[in-house]
Amino acid sequence: MLRLEGVTAAYGPIVALRDVSLEVEAGSVVTILGANGAGKTSTLRVISGLLRPQAGVVEFEGVAIDRLSPDKIVRLGIVQVPEGRQLFSQLTVRENLELGAYLRRDRAGIRRDLERVFNYFPILAQRQRQAAGSLSGGEQQMLAIGRALMARPRLLLLDEPSLGLAPLVTREIFSIIRAINQQEGITVLLVEQNARLALDIARKGYVLETGRVVLSDLAENLRRNEEVRRSYLGY
Amino acid sequence: METLLSGLLSAPVFLAPKPWEDWSLFGEQIVLGLMTGALYALVALAIVLIYRSTDIINFAQSEMAMFGTFAMWSIWLSGVAFFSNPWVLLVLAGLFGLGLGAVVERVVIRPVEGKPILTIVVVTLGLFLVLNSVATWIWAQGELPKSFPSPLSLLDSWDIGFASIPEHRVLIFAIGVAAMVLLGLLFNYTKVGLAMRATAQNPLAAQLMGINVGNMLTLGWALSGALGGIAGALIAPVVTLHPAFMLPVLLYSFAAAVLGGLNSAPGAIIGGFIIGVAENLLGTYTPHAILGPEMSLPLVLMLLVAILLVRPTGLLGERTVRKV
């Protein structure tokens, strides 16, 4: 469904990605692991069109997307939940969700999807008229995911959904991510520091180090991999 | 000695009416102040509109409006019957401002987007000078100031009991309020308005929603230009047309925007009305020897400094916390 081939990208003189290749199959959950600064977020920025690669191709369903603007990429069905959630904090929960459906014209479908999001995250229904900035960290993450769902994504890019959340809340979020993948058939590309959780729900994973893919395998193999265990799982 | 002093103080320049001596005058001054205030509110909104979405103070706001008004003056005199209708000119002034705002954003501002704020400030000041010089070059030959038509009379008044208000002032007020209401509806009840608010708050997230952020910025500048254009065509019949005619309006409006809080649209409106009323009351009730009409502009600028010292965020402005 999504394929990166030899992608190199930089912020000015600082090279963030070197020759990165990866593939995400339709319907699966794929995770990207790595330390801070390894290039995980940069990979998602390239896919979303926020960072132009200097070399390499990004293909979505066989079509090159690396020259498209971010709004065109959203139109194709690639929707990102960015790191730090990036909510519109002064707008209400409801307005944030409406903005998620910005490109859609089907009013009835939007209403149905709003119900669907409220089903996944009942707390958001209660807080509809509150400013997004007044929500707790976990609720904000729920809103960020809900907002992305409102766009009817086919590929969901999640950047560090567990960041700054209590373990219990993190587990809840991850079970919903799994449900979104299994019940809706939405393909998920997950960037995560919490490797244990990520490998639990992913089918396969890539390990990035200083902008390079150093390892890629099925999740179950990565869980057993000596290197991964020592560096990312901590045992 | 005492008689000399009291004699001096009763000289005409030291005399000013007192509010309690004539309440209907007081009421009239307040109403007139609200009429002018609507104009300041309009231009203050134009400033806030750009500031909220880009953090830029557009110092060329006044000259964009001035340029547009001169252009309207030219087509008014073009001899085409359609353009001799002041109502048509008013609408065209808004449309011209809309287009000019969009062009300025695309051509002048877009290339310096993301540059240090000082760079952008200098660019808007440069634009100020360019527009001012070009307008002087094109239009300031022959007699200045030039007269500009109003759809309503400048002399005939509406009598509302305690006050009589020139028809043209009523027009300023009505159009000003209408523009504010329309803008409020646009921002609060339409999808594009929501997208503009979202872009102003978090451009990155707006992009990820599929919003074309560049288009929203252009639209913001266009709307701002339209407000300025309308304001120019509304005040030109009163103050008459010359290349610097919008500058006082910009300064008053800037004070209004700062008073209300530079990032608050309701604040800009309230600020505009307060400045308009204050200007009228000060003009009426202070003895001319102490505060002549020449002093009203410096006074407003002092007020501006005072506001910035006491309450930098203005009446309704919010302190914005930015994560870098």
Concise synopsis of the structure shown:
The complex is a heterodimer of chains A (235) and B (324). Chain A is an alpha/beta fold and 235 residues long.
Could you explain how this protein is built, in words?
- The complex is a heterodimer of chains A (235) and B (324).
- By secondary structure, chain A is an alpha/beta fold.
- Chain A contains 10 helices and 10 strands.
- Chain A starts with a strand and ends with a helix.
- The mean pLDDT of chain A is 92.
- Chain B is mostly helical and 324 residues long.
- Chain B contains 12 helices and 2 strands.
- Chain B has helices at residues 2-9, 23-54, 61-76, 86-109, 117-139, 167-189, 191-201, 203-208, 213-239, 247-260, 265-285, 296-310; strands spanning 157-159, 164-166.
- A two-stranded antiparallel ribbon of chain B has the order 1-2.
- Chain B is globular.
- The mean pLDDT of chain B is 87.
